[in-house]
Amino acid sequence: MTLPLxxxxxxxxxxxxxxxxxxxMGSPASARQGIVWAGYGMLIAIAGTFLIPGLRNLTxxxxxxxxxxxxxxxxxxxxxxxxMPQMVAIYNGMGGGAAAAIAAIEFARADSHSVVxxxxxxxxxxxxxxxxxxxxxxxxxxxxxxxxxxxxxxxNVVNVLLALAALGLGAAMIVLAPAQPGLILVxxxxxxxxxxxxTLPIGGADMPVVISLFNAFTGLAVGFEGxxxxxxxxIIAGIVVGAAGTLLTQLMAKAMNRPISNILFTPMVASxxxxxxxxxxxxxxxxxxxxxxxxxASKVIIVPGYGMAVAHAQHKVWEMTSILEEAGVEVKFAIxxxxxxxxxxxxxxxxxxxxxxxxxxxxxxxxxxxxxADVALIIGANDVVNPSARTDKSSPIYGMPILNADQAHxxxxxxxxxxxxxxxxxxxxxxxxxxxxxYGNAQPMAGEIIQHLKAMG
Length: 457
What we know:
Layout: H1 5-24, H2 31-50, H3 58-78, H4 84-109, H5 115-143, H6 155-175, H7 181-199, H8 207-229, H9 232-255, H10 260-265, H11 287-295, E1 299-304, H12 306-310, H13 314-326, E2 330-335, H14 345-353, E3 360-362, H15 363-366, E4 375-379, H16 388-391, E5 410-415, E6 435-439, H17 442-456
Parallel strand pairs: 1-2, 1-4, 2-3, 4-5, 5-6
């Protein structure tokens, strides 16, 4: 049926606000406002939907909005910054699951649709199902519910066979439309299983890329199902999110120097036999020595990692930075594209602490400056500063671009213990002559350094 102009207008305005919001999210300085604009867009689009003449199931719709909105509000208020990656993963999965559910309802209704509409419904169902279960597995890994990667025998063969089976069943659903319930159930079962099987082996530094990839999947699934429903707001929002997620995934994969196919089918995991033997020993220093090295330096580059997030140390780090700058020390922050557990994780933490955006630099912008830095301070980062990525062809992370922290005159590493990084690879940087280890939780260690800096005047 032809929808009233005011409904279409509401959806159009909502779609425009989605685009404006997404553009705002492209910069840390405007990200918060971008989220607000996108939220207004969603509110207007939902309001427009309720204005459709003859709309049914209003009670169920209001109940769903109430339950979902309440759960989102409570979890959003309570979530810790360190738990944000898994929250992003599970919310992303819910979007993919919703798109798959829309398709399932359309299939169950057995209405007559054109081949194009049915094809898009099948594609949305497949992509949304994979995104849903894959995101759930990513959540479980990030939350610590799945503590290690699980790889099946002939993993890639299983992946390919499941994908071919899902595509074959999808093609059958298009040809035989409306499809029988049994065919629909088997299709969804295989699609959901594919998301689980593909994601189970993935871990380590690949996880931020996988989260971004599933975000792109969800956007595409929502866009396809928007076409099935004839909803322009869903079409525009889904395709814009899918395109942005795809671009981000490609940029992150490029930053790791790993094609997306390798991330999915050749996960980055440590091997007991992989990696050359590392010579030398780890050398410790005290918080007082660390404070003195930075206080009398000309230039300090700080490299934050997930350890800083776990310790909630970003505010202390910014306080330490302010003291150093007052003493005439030039301080910059170096961010690797895959630092942390999700895209932009470190940028969000530093912005939360009040670090000015002009002090935060990406890998390409800052890497040439490490050789002129008196001190590189590594706070909870590991894989993104591991020189084995440059020199050791047997290392699982060989070829991944890294921050050149090892080229600084002195390197200080704040680290909770002597364990390996998220990928399970030993870091050769910790054994170099110019590196010193400051063991302990990042927040109290930064606090100790601050006290010594203040005493130095």
